[in-house]
Amino acid sequence: MNQVKENNKPKVLIVILNYGTYDLTLKLIKKLSDLSYKEYDIFVVDNCSPNESAKVLEENSQEMNYIFFANKTNAGYAAGNNIGIRYAYEHGYEYTWILNNDVIILNQNVLEHMISTIQKQDQVAVIGPKIITRDNTVCAPYCRRPTFKSLTYGIAAERNYRRKYNDTPRKVYRVYGCCMLLDTKALHEVDYMDETTFLYGEEDILAERLLKKGYSAYYDPQVCVKHNESSSMKEVPKEKQKRIIEARRKSRELYLKDYRHFSTGQIAMVNMVADTIARIRG
Predict the structure, then answer these.
(1) Is the same domain home to 237 and 221?
(2) Per-10-residue mean pLDDT for the chain, 282 residues long?
């Protein structure tokens, strides 16, 4: 792998976290060859999958030209991706592209465009494209820092506000973790993502870490990807729904208590609203 810039283009490390779905990971790696931007390497982390993922991914790494790391424990999304981000920092990659293996690239210039855009912005440490769900709806950008009002009785109004900016390039509070381009040095400066979380809520916590150091996020809707994850809780088995709700609550409480300093009563109210919405959707 060559970390030297070619034609003065910044080198990018694409980090793909795998858990049990090596077929999706290999399919995505093949599609990445279609990108218009070529100055990248791929770093695959298997997060201690319960199947043969690690074996298959290691066997294919040389032929398909990617770096492979087999994590010995599954410590969650943040910890798994941090392995790749730390590698990027230690090996001089200017940017790290976090990419879920269930993401479908819709624009071949998505990486090229995000790099061009982030380089024009002052103090932007993370940029994300427009995200299209499996049922072809747009994931509205998180334009503003959440407040107690926007997380409770003003949640519907906030959702309507966000939708107005689906097609507007702008600085935002945070981007979506399934596809985000990171300034590697900035992530090192904020001590990477909070590994206390296991799943969900990582983007909000990262936003707070970046804000504390004077950085911001940017939404780039001129390029987009499709996140082929279920957009409806109705498609998730009941037992898994319960686990998802519990994991989201745990991360939410960490964010609200440690990073936003909400009171116990406020956290309880936010949890009640969020859990109620999740159950209605289920």
Answers:
(1) no
(2) 62 97 97 98 97 98 98 93 98 98 96 98 97 95 98 97 98 98 98 93 97 98 90 58 86 97 98 86 60
